[in-house]
Amino acid sequence: MAYERKEISIENIRAQEAICARIREMLTARVGQPLAMVDTYGCQQNEADSEKLRGYLAEMGCGFTQDEFSADIIVVNTCAVREHAEMRVLGNVGQLNHSKKAKPGQIIAVCGCMVQQEHMAEKIKNSYPVVDLVFGPHDLWHFPELLLRVMTGKKRVFATERCDGYITEGMPLKRDGKVKAWLSVMYGCNNFCTYCIVPYVRGRERSRRPEDIVAEARQLVAEGYKDITLLGQNVNSYGKDLDCNVDFADLIAMINEIPGEFLIRFMTSHPKDATEKLFKTMATCEKCAHQLHLPVQAGNDRVLEAMNRRYTAEKYLRQVELARSYMPDLVLTTDIIVGFPGETDEEFEDTVKLCEKVRYDAMFTFIYSKRVGTPAAKMPDAATREQKQVRFDKLLETANRISAEKHAEYIGKTMRVLVDGVTGKTEYNLSSRTNGGRLVHLKGDEALIGKFIDVKITSGNTWALYGEIGE
Ligand code: 5AD
Ligand code: SF4
């Protein structure tokens, strides 16, 4: 696919940072210590984008709050993958009337995938006057400039440039945690699965240069991060748009070379181009977690074709077998859509059968949601919501049973886990993850956060494992 790589120069980012300094002065004069609230919906890519928003906001002198009544600036970073997420966003943005009334100078921005859709930007323009600023994912890099326009003009600002997307390096970042970090390796998607809005709102696939990614990984390790998740809509096409002959497996191997004790995870992989080389690399790189999120979406070949997934159930199963032959301890998860337009009960049963064959450690299941402008939105869809719900419940029951059975197999085993945070509960106060990414609750000292330790698994259910720390 012809795509012209467009980079935002570092000078442009420095200019945005200079605007941050100006905003800082204006805000301090107005309110003293300004506070910002960033509310994030959707996927990890959006979490990573919110860390960039917070980076800019921190340079504007903002502290952070979760209370909309204390915030001087509110940014709602939205998702468009399913209608449910959009409804939640609209409901919550509507509620911001109250905080704005109580705090008249409050600035409210809505950004992200939802508003990159024209009809949604229009909806906000016409029905949500409380919103001062709207910008899409392609406009995030110049958020300071847009915010300044809101602060100095009297008009609302709408910036949702239609484009294939940019590569931006050097933006300030304020990460959420101290143990786990997101590291974007590429942006956008070229696959155009017929149900999915992502390629329309996030633009074409574009990879960051390997040297920039490795430098960021090195920095993360130096700062003490222990769990690095490489992010992309489809990491398996990493590098195809670059001229340096580095594919995703090579990238993992390069990051694996960085000295230090840390784990490399990644998501998401498209089954059509996961390679044997990738599985081999995962198995041989000692820092790479044996964890694979491989969304199958459906187990029936007609449905897979209508979804434009470009693999068959048989081919998918062969890949799973191949991956497991390299990593017998592989933790495998998936996404599944129930009730794709035209899916019959029999076709749905093929999905259940595939799940019984694969036996996923965890499955993320969704009822199909019609997305404006996608090919599937025009396909005949005879099944009722109730029929889809029955299928969904059956699949969820299957998923939960298999997860519980898989977790039961851990009981009595000693596992190496990374302690990554607190749970807020007294009995099991710490949370941790196995190499494969399974959640293990523990009781222990908070000083263990950020450490790899051995634990004995004592029990488990569908959602989590419970363990004891050895002597
Ligand atoms: N309806 C329901 N689920 C969807 N997903 C993507 N688009 C839709 C849609 N229109 C699911 C897919 C994808 C996950 C991130 O969200 O399963 O893998
Ligand atoms: Fe959407 Fe398919 Fe791209 Fe995933 S691979 S983001 S499901 S179009």
Structural commentary:
- There is one protein chain.
- The longest helix is centred in the last third of the chain and has 24 residues, at 385-408.
- This protein has a six-stranded parallel beta sheet with strand order 3-2-4-5-6-7, sandwiched between helices. Strands 17-18-19-21-20 form a five-stranded mixed barrel. A three-stranded parallel beta sheet has the order 9-12-13, with helices on both faces.
- 42% of the residues are buried.
- The protein has 14 helices and 21 strands.
- Helix content is 37%, strand content 21%.
- The protein is α/β, with parallel strands linked by helices and 471 residues long.
- Helix 9 (248-256) runs parallel beside helix 10 (276-284) and helix 13 packs parallel to helix 14 (385-408).
